[in-house]
Amino acid sequence: MDISKFTRFIIFLALFVFFFSCLSSTEAYDPLDPNGNITIKWDIMQWTPDGYVAVVTIYNFQKYRHIQAPGWTLGWSWAKKEVIWSMVGGQATEQGDCSRFKGNIPHCCKKNPAIVDLLPGTPYNMQIANCCKGGVLNSLIQDPSTASSSFQLSVGAAGTSNKTVRVPKNFTLKAPGPGYTCGIAKVVRPSKFASQDGRRTTQALMTWNVTCTYSQFLAQKTPSCCVSLSSFYNDTIVNCPTCACGCQNNIAQPGSCVEGDSPYFASAINRLDKTSSAPIVQCTSHMCPIRVHWHVKLNYKEYWRTKITVTNFNYQMNYSQWNLVIQHPNFDNLTQIFSFNYNSLTPYGNINDTAMLWGIKYYNDLLIEAGPYGNVQSELLFKKDLSTFTFDKGWAFPRRVYFNGDNCVMPPPDSYPWLPNASIRTKSPMLLPIIVFLAAFWCLSFGYGR
């Protein structure tokens, strides 16, 4: 059966789209933290004449991704005409239209309330346990004691039993911007709580959970960090890829980046909106707020040494509780690390090739905004495994780097610093086999070459 030229063209187009779609990753699934998520637990603790009192807790089960200032915002849609009479440990951002109420006015009457955490220093009569952190949640490995947050709310115009209560829907989580997608609320077994002496256990009257997962592409249109490389055995410094996080566009969009010595600099810094998370970056070829530089520094008989420098090009913010995740096959033989904390991650079972690094508290856990002090650095000492160690073909450089949970843009592998005695490299672009295949398919399908 002969296939029409139109059908062949459609097949060709589909193959073309398929191959190019394979070149990019959606990053919705994180292979280094496959079970990472944020779970929202809603515990009904008591019934009231027209509703219930509940404690809502947000748990960060992500190993290295945290929520930084100005913190989380949790939203949902009520299933019926519920209102929030009062809150402790949190507050709704808007009261909404409460004109139907006479006398006592609810805290919030909106159909889709948005809740934020209270700030540190809140009066004690407005607090509950585990609240009032300004919406900041640390990652699970950095500080598990501050990886959760709670608030209490009294809900009215709701059901007064397990059979009449309706679970809210359309949960959203901003942290502080987009990036998280929340599933539906699922009723689970009621939570149990142990007394301080451990001799008595109580439980919630009703519990439901909501799971929210992170996608870097939903969080931002462009990447937020990049990686540059250098070594002692080659004078070449491999910079971050050009336009890795966007391109300079000061002509069409004045102020998209800032030159440190430009007349615009002072006015740009003065007009910064500290409540916004949008970066105002220093003008560079890569335009990334964060650059991670990996330098292969020294080679000993039994050890080798590398230096890591993290530079902040963002004039808009300091990065508190920052962290790095780096994948390299020699982390199994890490001997010493200077001025950073270290924790081994094993996302692939017993293979120890991934490390999490972060600053020492009160010393370098705050990465200052762009400027002369806007960097942190450390050195790592590795023991050589003679069966695998080599400086050849870029082995000494990391395979993958994350900053604050976001995947950083790496330079192309054929640009890595090579050993001086390496032969001339033959560049083989990744697209070449695809182009050859598509060209052959086109010729065969349309009869060219016959």
From TrEMBL:
InterPro entries: COB_C (IPR056900), COBRA_pln (IPR006918)
Origin superkingdom: Eukaryota
Segments forming domain COBRA C-terminal: 224-417
Membrane-spanning parts: 430-449
One BP term from GO: plant-type cell wall cellulose biosynthetic process
GO cellular component, one term: plasma membrane
Family membership: Belongs to the COBRA family.
Protein name from the UniProt record: COBRA-like protein
Source organism: Dioscorea cayennensis subsp. rotundata (White Guinea yam)
